Amino acid sequence: MIDLKGFTPTEILIYNxxxxxxxxxxxxxxxxxxxxxxxxxxxxxxxxxxxGYDSFYEFKFNLKQQQLALQTKKLESNYDTxxxxxxxxxxxxxxxxxxxxxxxxxxxLISNAGNVLFFGIGTSGILAQYGARQFSNFGxxxxxxxxxxxxxxxxxxxxxxxxxxxxxxxxxxPEIVNRAISLKAEGFHVISITNNNYxxxxxxxxLNFSYNIKPEIIxxxxxxxxxxxxxxxLESLARNAKFD
Length: 244
Hints:
The protein is α/β, with parallel strands linked by helices. The protein contains 12 helices and 7 strands. α1 crosses α4 (41-50) and α8 runs parallel beside α12 (228-239). The longest helix has 21 residues, at 56-76. It is elongated.
């Protein structure tokens, strides 16, 4: 709350008008406001400076931000916005610095890769399919597998410099961990995308991209941890992959 003790009666009049009529304050020019309040533009400027702003533009910008914040608060009372908060927290991180070493190593691996296999189960399987499609869009020979017991195609076995990108939120699903170990034994470069970098899958991987988002489980077994960071990582990898 602004202390109005140092304000003149005219400035208090201006202040009350600006506070009570935010829409007019945002849309009208300073001359138009002066006409509406029956004061001079100079009086409005003096009032705004006493309110702590350097210019009329700065005042309007701050007022707009306040209005947006109030609108958001009203909307939050009607909707579950947790996923927005989670995504905002993730994208507010210095992601380029966070993944710089991994991206550099990935670009070296992908430059000589003959084939990329994506693997996941459940939701991670759907994203594995999405990752394979994205890589294919960028000219990378990619396939996906969502069945841990499905034998790999012979053409995959015969390729050299193969990469396996394994997706798992927990990084502890036995079928995924075992497949990663077996692929590693077959000469694959194993890259994993997990929620943390201390999981078993992360530890057996040559490269790990972890996103460290709050894990969420409902009905005891359903993992609903947001996968927005996974999509970001997959698209970042695809855009740093080679082109045909």
